[in-house]
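Recall that a protein's primary structure is simply its ordered list of amino acids. Everything else, from secondary elements to tertiary packing, is in principle encoded there. The following example makes that idea concrete.
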Amino acid sequence: MSVVTSFQDDDSPEERSRRIFLARATVAIGGAIGLFLTVPLAGSLVPESIVTGDSGKGVWADVSPTEFLQLKSASTDPVKINFNFEYADGYFPPADDDQFVWEIALNPESESKFKAERPELFTTGAAAVSYPVINMGFVVFSSVCPHLGCRVNWFSDKKEFICPCHGSKYTFEGKKTYGPAPRGLDPLPLREKDGNAQITWIQYKGSQPDRVIVAYS
């Protein structure tokens, strides 16, 4: 007749050491596998423009000839420029995006004033930009308020940009004079190509004094 006995755990020091080693090895292997999977998955969720972005990235959108002529004739007030570009980033399908910017025209006198009012744009600090701020005698401002992302508007009677959400105010040169915004208006890249003016849309991180690029168009 066979005799069935219950399992007797060997609680010797050697057995306890073996179990501790196996448990730690399992945790270490599982952690390595998790890290191996997490890095590429997390990377796939980050827009490509953040990973590889520099001043040469982004889509150049044409300014219409009519609006460019309007800009050339401007002197005392900024000109609102509407433009459209095809946005494609990461794994999202291409999609049309409509934006608007504010452009100001500068003569030698107003250019000197602009540089005096916005010195942070022409330094090597965290608030500077890596592309020319002034091009062809013009400056392009993002319409996005650096506070929480509302769109600023120009008020000719007050001679200032005003955010309709929280009341931040900016001069003609984009310098912040009032409100919770942590910095002045963000300039955008402008260039001339084949006789056309072109703009690149850049999304900057809000609510901080430094200019941190979130994504290019």
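The helical segments are 13-45, 48-52, 65-73, 108-117. The domain at 55-216 is CATH 2.102.10.10 (Rieske Iron-sulfur Protein).
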